[in-house]
Amino acid sequence: MKLKVCPGVCGLESLIIAESEDGMDVNIQVETKCKAVKAFIDSLEQPLDSYEVCFAKPGDGPVYEAASENLIHSACPVASALIKCIEAECKLALPKDVSFTFVD
To answer: CA 49, 96, 94 angle in degrees (round to 5)?
Structure first.
């Protein structure tokens, strides 16, 4: 499963790649120019347990623990996108686009 993240004004897009053979254990790769996102991904112990990741309370679990130690901006959408990509890869949710849109 691949998921492209366009984070906003920083312009440092990420391509998340999640791969799982059994729907439980999942390995993550990310293509990005963002040093903080690279550090975030490198700090994750892989493979990740998809149930531990996807069924944690918001802000909890291994993804947000690694995010809080490595990502610079609290509004960075990469951690949430990573979880969405794992959900879809492991068939815990259907792949559906998400978006943020500013309105006047």
So the answer is: 50
**Digits of tens for pLDDT over the chain (104 positions)?**
999 999 999 999 999 999 999 999 999 999 999 999 999 999 999 999 999 999 999 999 999 999 999 999 999 999 999 999 999 999 999 999 999 899 99
Q: What is d(CA 82, CA 64) in angstroms, rounded to the nearest whole number? A: 10
DSSP secondary structure letters along 1-60: -EEEE--STT---EEEEEE-SSSSEEEEEEEES-HHHHHHHHHS-SSEEHHHHHTSPTT-
Q: Token pair for residue 13?
A: 């897009």
Q: What is the pTM of this model?
A: 0.94
- 3-state secondary structure at position 71: coil
In angstroms, the CA 89 to CA 83 distance is 10
